[in-house]
Amino acid sequence: MRIGLFQTYLGRHEQPVYPLGLAFIGSVLHHHQREVLCRDLNIYQSPLQELEATIKSFQPEMIGLSLRNIDTTQSRDLYYYYLYFQEQIRKIKKIAPDIPLVVGGSGFSLYADQIMRDNPELDFGIYREGEETMQELSVKINTPQAVVGLYYRQNQTVCFTGSRPVLDLATLPPLKWDLFSLAAYKEVPGALGVETKRGCSLQCDYCTYPFLDGRNIRKHPVAHIMSSLEDLVFNHGFSRFTFTDSIFNIPQDHAHRYQCLVLFLNL
């Protein structure tokens, strides 16, 4: 199966951020022998033209679209990315009306049911962590009711198969960084993030991370993180990156371990 994964264009040009969530999903699909093409529409001068050209040339059998943010959440610069997300799903369905369109991402998961109901162009929605759900959907596209963690439509009614248990991060294959064009992120401070764990045990009222990733902290195996860092430094020439963990220094021994790894790499 050919699968096209797209990071939604924000609607205006901002500092690019490497689509880490889509990269994890793309790595899983690649590991399971899917033909995967990934595009971050935010790094192109003409994002919607790139979207159309990519779909027409690659001819995917499934299209995945990631909605990372609904808006800026900043009163001095309140801007709704969601409006441009809606524009893009309509454009995709106009270009490829018969291709299954799947949406996921943190922005989607926060309002999953409402987004599915308000946008009939969406065939499927992936709730919270998407690595296992997307891989299963690529196998069971004709029986979506058998895929846990999925929104789908049955007789124009939005259905949900229920929440999937949190993912064991040790089961993930190595992250394939070059699924996206890395050159666009190399010289931008903070554009490329490395994840060492998921989940947050704090209870801050304003924060959505415990909802999205769970309250129990799950760590990536040290060997996996070391491999990712070595790949970035020695194979792709990165000398700086950002740790994307919700709270980096909890637990402290975990944070200290990765500080030592960075020193080992002479960064």
Write the layout of secondary structure elements.
Elements: E1 2-7, H1 20-31, E2 35-40, H2 47-58, E3 62-66, H3 81-95, E4 101-104, H4 106-110, H5 112-118, E5 124-126, H6 131-139, E6 150-154, E7 157-160, H7 183-186, E8 193-194, E9 197-198, H8 209-213, E10 218-219, H9 222-235, E11 242-243, H10 252-264
Parallel strand pairs: 1-2, 1-3, 3-4, 4-5, 8-11
Antiparallel strand pairs: 5-6, 6-7, 9-10
Estimated radius of gyration: 18 Å
CATH superfamily heading of the largest domain: Cobalamin-binding domain
- Low-pLDDT segments, ≥5 res: none
Please state the average pLDDT score: 93
Task: Tell me roughly what share of residues is in helical segments.
Answer: 25-40%
Determine the strand fraction and express it as a percent band: 15-25%
The main β sheet shows up as:
7 strands, mixed
Distance between the termini: 39 Å
How many domain units? Answer: 2
Widest sheet, order of strands: 2-1-3-4-5-6-7
- What are the secondary-structure elements, in order, as H or E? EHEHEHEHHEHEEHEEHEHEH
CA-based shape: globular
The third-level CATH topology of the largest domain is Rossmann fold
Oligomeric state of the chains? Answer: single chain
Helix count from the secondary structure assignment: 10
Structural class: alpha/beta
Assigned CATH architecture of the largest domain: 3-Layer(aba) Sandwich
Number of strands: 11
- Which CATH class of the largest domain is shown? Alpha Beta
Pfam family, one: B12-binding
Protein name: B12-binding domain-containing radical SAM protein
Cofactor: [4Fe-4S] cluster
InterPro entries: BchE-like, Cobalamin-bd, Cobalamin-bd_sf, rSAM, rSAM_sf, Znf_C2H2_type
